[in-house]
Amino acid sequence: MNPPSSSDASAAPAPLVIESSVVEGLPAEAALLLRMSGSLDAAGAQAWAAELRSHLEQADRAGLRPVLDMAHVQLGGAAVLHTLSEAARARTGRPDLIIVRARPGVREAVHLARLDGVRLFATLDEAMRELARAASRVDELPAWRSQMADPLRPSYEDLRKEVRALRARVRTAPVIGMAQGVLMVRYGLPDSGTAFRALREASQRFNVPLRVLVSAVVVARPPDGEVWFPGRRSLPVPQLRILARDGRDPRYRRQMIDAVLHEALAIGRAPAGHVRFVDPAVNALMLETHYGCADTFLDLLVRGRDEGTADALARLRGHRVSVPDVAADTLLSEEARRALLSTGARALQSIPVLSAAGSCTGVITLQWPEAGHRPTAAQAEALGLLASDTAAWLSWYHRSVLLDALEHLHRTVTGSAGPAEDARGDPRRPGNPDAVDTPHHPEGVRRMSNPQQPEQRRSDKGAATPQDSGQTKARQGTGRAAGGRPHGSDKGKKGGGKGGGVPPEQRPDHP
């Protein structure tokens, strides 16, 4: 593996790295596969171009066909185009430069620039098959393909998804930077890269999304000793009447959030909906998962334009908000109304997820295509129970899994020795490295798969009272004010004790 293209590792969160390997399979020649990962911007383009030229010269000397795998290149634009154009110009008279698995933005830019000597393929296998066929053809005229039918040209849906992901990163990046700064100052870490690696390791080990972990780091009071949260007890999983079905593991956040939306869609017989939770570091609703929502409406949510939406009203008022006629209801802003009408939504309802203290920690929203639609009394009752289940689970998750991750982070950066955080030998425990799924990225907004038909609901009435999320009434009032300060901006006077505090909405109930 070659060294990173940037000599200053702390200048970028993920410096570009190029790995080379020989791939056999062509009848006349093998290919030198150059796998690229990391960030590429204008500042690092010159170093990347020099490293790329070195690899291309190596391929030419060895008689290998160079293939660039750009699936994991985070940034691009003009820097990529300029570098590829210079590389192609320097290779005049040699085999074309092959690019596989490029991101939609890079594919579109290369396609429109019509760079000579550069060919795009969706996958490595497709590139190898096409090159093998080309090597066996003799005197065959080039085939003409319409630009409109080009399968390698990204669709508008692909581009919209990438734009939404970039917007989500933009909203999350400042909080990540704040968390890195907190760790550097608190623990004397040498640079932001070391802080980021510690955050990423804790995120992956406990299967906690990075944006959720960094938000907790920012709002939590600093620890005073070897233990961040002294006296914290292991909390039992709350008794959930709806979300406990189907063997769902409450320790896995993504599984439970998808279950919330699945159950809501099934209860309300709704074709579309979404779930948003409050990020305490920025005091704003963040899109967690969605199904059936059109791109224009999702763009509105991702941009943080909450003013005049049913979500914002439900959070502010602390009770459900029904909009039976989107076209005529005065509660909605014109921007929100246009976005909903353009997507075919004519009625909607937002149900707040309220903690035991009465603070709104999230919102569940359903959409219907018929104006005048309202959930029945039975549906409204079931949706209220689902919101209570969600609040109880979210409070437990914050006090258990998230605080375990914070405690592990504290022990890691301080170098303290000690047993793992209450793993108790459970192989499904998020603290068990073997149980970790794919890492969660800051832009991890998920579109649910097609929800199944609702199951027969249990008739038991013994649900437990939702766990208190610990947010005080004063914080609730502050959050509802127009110019309210973000969560965690106060220092907190409750639940002090030696050893630091728990994030405001995550304080454990212990003496």
From TrEMBL:
Query: Residue ranges of region Disordered?
Result: 414-511
The organism sits in which domain of life?
Bacteria
Asked if the record carries the keyword Hydrolase, the reply is: no
Where do Basic and acidic residues bias regions lie? Answer: 421-446
- ANTAR domain: from which residue to which, for each copy? 156-218
Output the Gene Ontology terms for molecular function: RNA binding
Span-the-membrane segments of this chain are none
Which UniProt keywords are present, listed alphabetically? Transcription, Transcription regulation
Which residue windows are coiled coil?
A: none
Q: Which SMART domains match?
A: ANTAR (SM01012)
Q: Which Pfam families match?
A: ANTAR, STAS
What is the protein's name according to its record?
A: Anti-anti-sigma regulatory factor
Q: Which organism is it from?
A: Streptomyces puniciscabiei
